Structures are given as structure tokens and as C-alpha cells.
Amino acid sequence: MRKLILLILVTVFLEIGTFILVGKEIGVFPVFILILATAFLGMGLVRRHVQVTVVQIRLEMMQGKIPRTQLMDGLSILIGGILLIIPGFITDLIGLLFILPQTRSFFKDRMYQFIKKKMDGQTITFRR
Fold this sequence. Notes:
Layout: H1 2-26, H2 28-62, H3 68-85, H4 89-99, H5 101-120
Helix pairs in contact: 1-2, 2-3, 2-4, 3-4, 3-5
């Protein structure tokens, strides 16, 4: 939990610094427009990729297969979408890496290994 709080704090400070640097170069209004544009772009990319992923999951399940790859795609797209909606250039860049198919596989493999390790070690707890 401490690592997560530290990561959030560091990210906030880096984003503020990036806003200041970019704002000095191109101005406040263009920075605001860029932030809005990336949020809308992110929502559009997520919508498109989620629709394709849901169809692929349904096809796999109808064939009696476990849609592991498609589920990891969906999780990557969800994380990327959240990062794109959060205002900031650094989170936008990371969010795009999670969404774009060319770079998504890097994150999918690591997320799968992380989840598998947690489930094998029985450290994931579901609560109501």
C-alpha cells in the first residue's frame, strides 16, 4: 500500500512539473486543449477496442475455450483508458502504451504473470 501511495505522489509531482514545462513552451490554453483531446481520444480508443475484445471473448467462450488472451486485452485496455482520462502527459503516454496492440502484449504478459503468481500464492482475496 505504501508503494502505491508513493507511486501516486511521484506521478502527481511529475505531471505538475510536466504541465509547467509544457505550459511555458506552448501556453496554458493549448495545454488545456491537449488534455481534453487526449481524454476524448482515450475514450474513443477504449470504446473501439473494448467492442472488439468483447466479441472475441464471446467467440472463445462459445467454442468452450477460456479467453485468457482476450481477458488480458480487456484489462490492459481498461487500465490504459483510465490512464488516458486522468489529466497528464505522462499518464497519457503510459495509457496509450496499454491500449495500442503493438505495445499491449508487453503489459499483458506481465499482468498475467502477476495475477498467476498471486493466485498460486493464494494472496488474492475477494470480499463482499
